[in-house]
Amino acid sequence: MHRFFVPAELLENVASGSIISLPDKIAHQVRDVLHLAVNEQLVLLDNSGWEYVSSINKASKAGVEVQVIERRTGKAESPVNIILCQGLLKSARFEWVLEKGTELGVSTFAPILCRRSMSGLEDAGSAKLQRWQRILQEATEQCGRTRIPELLPIHPLIHALNDIPNDALAIMPWEEERGKSLRDVLQASKRDPLSKQTVVAFIGPEGGLMAEEVQLAQRYNVQAVTLGQRILRAETAALATIANIMYELDPML
Q1: Which in 96, 120, 139, 233 has the greatest CB count within 10 A?
Q2: Residue in 103, 119, 122 with CA at minimum distance from that of residue 111
Q3: Where in the chain is the domain with CATH 2.40.240.20?
């Protein structure tokens, strides 16, 4: 079924059988783009974790009405809370990380400025921020999740280090690390009876992280880890890290 986020107030206090008029933009997509017909079903979302299974009741140029059939809890959100602190990348690559990271289950994206970040990338205007939010929403709808990941403002690395939650496992993949693998750290965390459900992953920009940045992060209890012998692009390292975190820590997998 197709899935659509709608304003939360539209679904406030609705019950089975309630009739809802879809916002014009979504009505256009349902009627004119997807050509969904009367009695076809879709899912409405309000970013609360609930899904509202609905059936198209009327579709005309005047608008689209749906009837709520069932409210149910979404099942695609992971109990593992991943905060991805991603060194700023060129636009297309960063947007790819937003889209695929959402599909893999990232809860929060925190774009960070590192020493080797390209100059000018931090100047994200309102149009770009709106585009990033739209990418997150569309990826959330596509992959079956019920909560849009949070996108934090762009901040320097030190700001993100200061914001690490007290109960989080913090890791930083780095190509110069040789002694500690990501798998070792995640498996050790899984064996810990006080295993942490929040993981903060720091990924460098295209030019990589400098040794001084890694040393600074280690003073904040961030563990430098290796992803193996191959040198990965920043966006590849981000997704490889997320996938490994989910594989090791998410009980749903």
Answers
A1: 139
A2: 122
A3: 2-73
pLDDT of 101 strictly over 90: yes
Q: Does domain 2-73 have CATH number 2.40.240.20?
A: yes
Domain 81-249 has CATH 3.40.1280.10: yes
Question: Nearest CA to 239 among 123, 125, 93?
Answer: 93
pLDDT tens by residue, 64-93: 999 999 999 999 999 999 999 999 998 899
Summarised one tens digit per residue, pLDDT across range 12-47 is 988 889 999 999 999 999 999 999 999 999 999 999
Q: Tell me the whole-structure pTM to 2 decimals.
A: 0.91
Rounded-to-integer distance, Cα 67 and Cα 54, Å: 5
Average pLDDT of the chain is: 92
pLDDT in the model for residue 129: 87
